[in-house]
Write a structure and sequence with these properties.
With about 110 residues, this protein is an alpha+beta fold. It is about 40% helix and about 25% strand. The protein has two helices and five strands, in the order αβββββα. A five-stranded antiparallel β-sheet has the order 4-3-2-1-5, with helices on one face. Strand 2 and strand 3 form a beta hairpin.
């Protein structure tokens, strides 16, 4: 009986770890990967280093970003993109750049 209780507790702990740690992390990774694959020319992005710019060209594994009024262009890897829009909070969520997105966010 005692060994059965031990086995059940181990299974319960593994299930808790899966649903509280592993599954949400995999979901965030999948969403980030989908966002990076859906980048198009004209999108405003924020990188993980805090660089804000507009996408000028999209390649297979990289993007060309134009920053600032002096039109400096940088080629960055897609994995370096943190969010679409200008990131204004530490949680990584950018402000919507389209009027349609702004309207849906207000609702």
């Amino acid at each position: 009986m005692e060994t059965m209780y031990s086995i059940v507790m181990i299974v319960v702990m593994i299930a808790i770890f899966y649903f509280l740690l592993i599954r949400p992390e995999n979901k965030r990774k999948k969403e980030a990967n989908e966002m990076r694959n859906s980048l198009i020319v004209g999108d405003e992005i924020t990188t993980i280093g805090g660089v804000v710019g507009t996408i000028c060209a999209v390649k297979e594994n990289s993007i060309v970003v134009e920053t600032g009024a002096d039109r400096v262009r940088m080629e960055l890897m897609k994995w370096a993109v943190s969010s679409k829009g200008v990131q204004t909070t530490e949680d990584g969520k950018g402000e919507p750049t389209d009027d349609k997105d702004k309207k849906s966010k207000k609702k």
